[in-house]
Amino acid sequence: MKFLFPFLLLFLSLIPSLTFSESLRGTFIDCGATSPTVINGQQWVPDNDFITVGTPKNLSTQYEDLTLSTVRTFPVQNNIYKKFCYDIPAFRTGKYLVRTTYFYGGVNGNANPPVFDQVVDGTIWSIVNTTEDYGQKKASIYEGIFVAAGKAISVCLAANNYTDSDPFISALEVVVLANSLYNSTDFGTYGLKLVARHSFGYNGPLIRYPDDQFDRYWQPFGEDNSTTPSSRNVSVSGFWNIPPLKVFQTHLGTNQPEPLELPWPSTSLPNSIYYIALYFADDRVSPSASPRVFNITVNGIMYYANLAVTEAGEAVFANQWPLAGLTNITLTPATGSAIGPLINAGEVFEVLNLGGRTLTRDVIAMERIKASIKNPPLDWNGDPCLPRQYSWTGVSCSKGPKVRVTTLNLTNMGISGSISPNISSLSALSGILLGNNSLTGSIPNLSSLKRLEILHLEDNKLSGEIPSSLGNIQNLHELFLQNNNLTGTVPSNLVGKSGLNLKVSGNPFLPPPAS
Q1: Given a cut of 50, is residue 172 above it in pLDDT?
Q2: Does residue 361 sit in helix, strand or coil?
Q3: CA angle 273–276–281, rounded 5-degree value
Q4: Please, are residues 491 and 471 in contact by the beta-carbon 8 Å criterion?
Q5: CA of 62: how far to CAs of 65, 66, 261, 356, 489, in Å?
Q6: Which of 160, 398, 412, 483 supports an S-S bond with 436, CB 3.0-4.6 Å?
Q7: At CB < 8 A and 24+ separation, what contacts does 62-67 make?
Q8: How many angstroms from the chain centroid is the CA of residue 149?
Q9: In a 10 Å sphere around its CB, with 0-12 CB exposed, 13-18 middle and 19+ buried, how is residue 255 labelled?
Q10: In this structure, are residues 24 and 175 in contact, taking their beta carbons and an 8 Å threshold?
Q11: Peptide bond preceding 263: is omega within 30 degrees of 0, i.e. cis?
Q12: How far apart are CA 42 and CA 63, in angstroms?
């Protein structure tokens, strides 16, 4: 992995203030709903424009948060290791906060909710396990930061070996972020999965929009801490992550020149690499006050030395920091300091290695193939190849950095419609197996598929003549066209092709190939 050692960036108050629109921009989906709803001034829309599979359901109990009163569920039977995706329009290279909300409400009839995976584009984002929260009658909320690689972001639910009933989702939000946010992360390689975001010394309600213009959730932290909270107003200049000013109205700290121990995040973390952002602003406004100067260590390792905090504010970032188990942050006054440290807020994300993306040309071709056939497999949404355990039904793909579609096998899948000419854009195909369906129309020109070895189109309703271009595919050694409505004659370059297993019987007016 890149950046094996911690990589720190300090953005000081000298950075000019950044100006952004404070209107909340994004897509807010009330999953399973049938009509739009306005909640806290925000328009929420039904999900039927973003997904074509699954079943919308109402929970038996209505909740104050209307997004928790409905869900969309997805069938687990015969669908292990298949994904079901919402496709959300996006700006290519745009940065987005993706938030999913889950409240089970007993919708499947089981006492406990199912466990399943959630996926963003080609990356497994996290396991969704809402059992503990549901036992406390709470919703489970997941948040991540991702950059759109194309014109849409796919957010998918996927059944794994532990999924014992239908996966479900209550709400989905995709919020546009300013480019400066978390910009020390290489979002072409990584995504961020939220672990904790807290306002320290604060014990009020959740801080979110409009205090946070991107509707990030800042949880209260410190109501049971013996250190002293402060509620004075401070003046804070622009930070690149643009935290809300409200988090600087309280802090955890001490005026005595003694260390401050902060066990945070409060949960044990898996052994991984993390992004850490800590925010500070001194609440003393006296012009003669010397800055608070202190060292920051994380689990005994120096994170930043001699940080001088003034009322203008400071923020320290680490975009590649290893953590495992419980975490302890210690703020220790620098030698000779007459006043103790403080901290206002913090964020921790697990750094996710992105799973990659199927070659764009192949994605476009697969989407057009999907559009040309009726009743395609239910899981034909999102990335066709990735994550690898959740590739589309009937689709096999290459390994390595350039992911290509190599086999398309929809034999006996009950599909109809036609074979899109865009199939010829899948130039890595070695096998096309579409036999025993109800496909109509003609056989497209496949001469560009130089690697094609097997072409099975038997037992369909295809018409027209057999393209002579098939005889020019040197690697083709198996061509099954029997039991269709093909007419004309078998091209001579197929009849005499060495090593070709050719089957064409059961077609009207099609004389058998010469012996």
Answers
A1: yes
A2: helix
A3: 170
A4: yes
A5: 8, 7, 43, 40, 66
A6: 412
A7: 63/103, 65/39, 65/139, 66/30, 66/33, 66/37, 66/39, 67/30, 67/31, 67/33, 67/37, 67/39, 67/101, 67/170, 67/171
A8: 11
A9: middle
A10: yes
A11: no
A12: 17
Taken as a whole, the chain contains a residue count of: 515
Q: How far, rounded to the nearest angstrom, does the alpha carbon of residue 91 sit from its chain's CA centroid? A: 15
Measured CA to CA in angstroms, residue 411 lies from 322, 391, 436, 498 at distances of: 47, 17, 6, 26
Convert the pLDDT of each residue in 347-369 to its tens digit.
Answer: 999 999 999 999 999 999 999 99
pLDDT digits (tens, 9 = 90+) for 37-80: 998 889 999 999 999 999 999 998 777 788 899 999 999 988 89
Structure tokens, 142: 């997941």
Output the pTM of the full model: 0.90
Calculate the alpha carbon distances from 87 to 16, 117, 193, 372 in Å: 37, 17, 20, 19
Q: What is the DSSP letter of 427?
A: T
Among 233-237, 245-249, 262-266, the least confident range: 233-237
Asked whether the bond before 210 is cis by omega within 30 degrees of 0, the reply is: yes
Neighbouring-strand partners of residue 43: 38
Burial 270-303 (b: 16+ CB within 10 A, else e): eeebbbbbbbbbbbbeeeeeebbbbbbbbeeeeb
